[in-house]
Amino acid sequence: MNRIQTELLLRKAQSGDTGALDTLITAYYPQILNYCRWHTADEQQAQDAAQETFLKAVRWLDSCGGFQGAFRPFLYKIAKNICIDICIDLNRTMERTEVSLESLPGEPAYQESGFAAAEEKANLRALTAQLEPEQRELVLLRFAQQLKLREIAEITGLPLRTVQSRLRAALKTLKMQLEKEDWR
Predict the structure, then answer these.
(1) What's this model's pTM, rounded to 2 decimal places?
(2) How far, in Å, CA of 99 to CA of 88, rounded?
């Protein structure tokens, strides 16, 4: 969905058009859910975070007269903060709770369809785990979410040139890791 279509739908949604709001959510939900999957512990948390993202966005649209800026980066900013909150809450819960081996889920069933994509995501997650959190976020936004550098700058609040240089440094670090560990 291009920016003009999004802006038109936003204006309609602010005027009470629920169909326009549904169209916006349908268009952006898969991207936000995918982003939340990278930042939460499991699928249920990712779905909860994505839903909360849209609830907050709708509340914001209802409470404000107009929307300035790009909608997609706005959604990612909300999702980022919600995922941070979920991780903080999860860490607090884990500190208070002992986990027994019996309560852990068994191995997930092997699924042929989508296995290669899941393996790629696991490889990317393993590679980026060694990066600094800020660098990891930039790599995930750029390559897992396929956002433009300008959008990443809006989401992170960093200047475009800073995003470029930090992303370049992160990729250089990843390249050195790959050469060092001989990943294939």
Answers:
(1) 0.71
(2) 18
